[in-house]
Amino acid sequence: MDMATFRNMRTSTPRQWLVAVAATLVLAACGGGGGGSGGGGGGGTTNFNTAEFQANYGLSKIGALTAYNNNGTGSGITVAVVDTGIDVNNAEFSGAIAAASTDIVTNNKTFLQDPSTSGHGTAVAGVIGARRNSAGTHGVAFNSTILAIRTDTVGSCFTSCTFTDDNIAKAINHAVSNGARVINISLGGSSAPNTALQNALQNAVNNNVAVIAAAGNSGGSEALFTARLANCTGGGGLCNGFNALGKMIAVGATDQSNAIASFSNRAGDTASGFLVAPGVGIVTTNLLSLGGGTRTVNGTSFAAPHVAGALAVVMQRFPTMTTAQAVSLLFTSATDLGANGTDTTFGRGLLNLAGAFQSQGLTSLPTGNKIGDSSEDLRASALTLGPAFGNALQSKAFLSQAIVLDAFDRPFNTDLRNVVQNATVDPGVAGFIAAPPGDVRRIATGSSGSLALTMGPAIENREDLLDFGNVAPPRDAQTVQSAFYQGHIGSDVGVSLALNASSTELFDDVARFAGAASPFVGLEFVNAPQLSLVGKGDGGGASYRLDDRTRISLGFMETETDPFTDQGGDSLIQASLTHGLSFGPVLRVGVGFAQENAAMFNSTSSGAFGAIGDSESTFVTFGASVPVSATLAAHASYTAAQADVLYAGDGYLNNWSSVLANAFSFGLTQSDLFQRGDRAGLAVYQPLRVYGAQADLTIPVGTEPVPGGAIHYQSERVDVTPTGREIDLQLAYRWHPTRTINAATYGVMMVNPGHDNSAKPAFGTGIRLWLDF
Amino acid sequence: MARFLNLVGATALAATLVACGGESMSSDTGEKAGATPATSAAEVPEGAIAVGDDVYMVPIAKDDTGCMMYRAFSPTKAVIQAIHYRTEDDRFVMNKDEAACSE
Q1: Which of A27, A94, A445, B43 could bridge across to B14 with cysteines, CB 3.0–4.6 Å?
Q2: Is residue A153 part of a domain?
Q3: Where are the domains of chain B?
Q4: What are the chain B neighbours of A295 within 8 Å (beta carbons)?
């Protein structure tokens, strides 16, 4: 239970029975504050589930559709393909091939063409970035840029292409110096890399370029090199000091049923840096010289580019992530296969691009200037408005533009209106069904007064007390919940003292005049709304009879502050003057001064909203009770209130203006209507309602689309007032057929319940029987 | 005959080198068991078919349609990690449709 909820439960009254509903956030990726989504393709109403998409089952297997529907296409991201070149004139790569693409062995761009004896580089590049052009199939990142770097040894592809470490090293360095964000290496060797290649790999990751490498097709328990270095952290042995810095992924192959391919090397000791992706029966781009169109291929060579393409997509779509975060995201969001958690077959699991588009980990609301600065856990950020505010802020569409950051510093849209909790409508049921004090023991203290002790249940956790060395009372002993002393000094002065009493008990005269003694349910909190601002506490009061028709009273109470939660610590001072006119009417003027700790009109906030500061409020009530006949009386009451928060605050909601509110009621009560001693009543009233309040609302709406980028905030001066005015009509009836039997019933109709002009009328009714002994 | 000589030569070379790729061990400490890098090379697997200069095709297993799969292998160089199939004229191709899968 959060503190806000705790607080409202502690001060619950019939009109303030808040139900704290956990905010359900509908998160949607929001693209890094307007700079990150890049252009081309994606989003809107485009249908991405085309025949071209379906041609390669790998795309659906990794959840690419989710990425496309959220504008993730790899646009603007360069993926280097260290391989056998590329089919340069193939329409699938039209506009996709980076200008820096070359044959790194001969350093001659004219030899970039993938030889007809291979087509491997073309097939790999096709899985990454073949264009979405209604032909063949398309790549995972169909808007990415392919930096094709032909690396095979001259002449080797006449049989089976081979690659030297020195040439692979050159290719990697070329990729790094030409803007690649991802390097795909669908090559593998049995030997650990030579110094040049190890240095090139280190250069890549040091420059935040991710390296994706095929695990190999030996069907063995360990990945080939270079993939096997994916989780090296600078140690010895095979790592030989190499540190992948969390920016490498080794990739094994799975088939359509997510089983590990029989030929695929397993994760082995690279498990923590290992993913699997589709690598069996992959449909990809074919060389024009071999007939063009598509071809079906197998191998970890084609699993790796699924991961490389996916990495390009998340890098494009979530530009606030670092390279290491993007790699970690793919690990974190992978679908676990095989043994629970990371295992030596599937490593971290199956690539899951759809999962990568979901927010990961705890979401937080930023409160600092930059990504990575201070933030507040979304779950701990709440704004709970008291009933007087009705549905205030719910109509502020502005709040729907907020962002939260997930564990990977990615901004996601969220509607903060779901975090604003408004009081729920309670047609009096809570107060009506609340059990009266069950065991009140009245002790006469001489002729001048009496002491009432309200007894509670027996100690529930007696053993706990014993554990702490306390002397626990007997097992069946009751506790004293509250004590209330009423007495008088002479005939003109009344005094009262209370411990742990409610405001309606302590300010009994106020409550009774306000309606507690009437047949109505909860009317005292309409006519004396300040009584609802404080919970149980200690206090006292005195009254003085000026003459036969005039009495003044003054009282105070204070609630205890919980040292652990800092809740409580509220106080109320109440003064009133009652005067009965000679011809019958009774007039009353009351003034209440309430102080709330970190609350205002029972509203609280926490987390990113900041704590509402301590507040002071003043209530002035004018009331009249006019006898119309011996059994019929008319009543009226009007309360004006003003609250001020004592300091500006430092959260999203701050700098409150004075808050103005009012409440009123009119009613008739009839005694002896059906039976002697019964009472019936009809009342029309408006519960306390804020009609004037403003505050500054500042929310995060975007980020600069770079890692550690600036947080963009938007501020508005907003009215914190409800959209409607609740008017209630209550019929109530009480009956005491015998001394011990009591009956009460009521019915209420609420128009604009919760001060919400869009709410349908609410109705409530109840009947209660109880016995007095 | 040349292919045979290649195989013999490669095998002899491999025998003089230290094999790498030790047993599975956790590497989250940043270390992996195995030989010192840069000097190690693997032995040519049994049944490997020499197809070029220090390059072999190694039969893996038959796939679910009974077609033998091969992987490229070189003890000293990196090779592409695609599955190959053997054609009737003893070429190795990535395209299964060209393969002689009845053998």
Answers
A1: B43
A2: yes
A3: 2-98
A4: 94-95
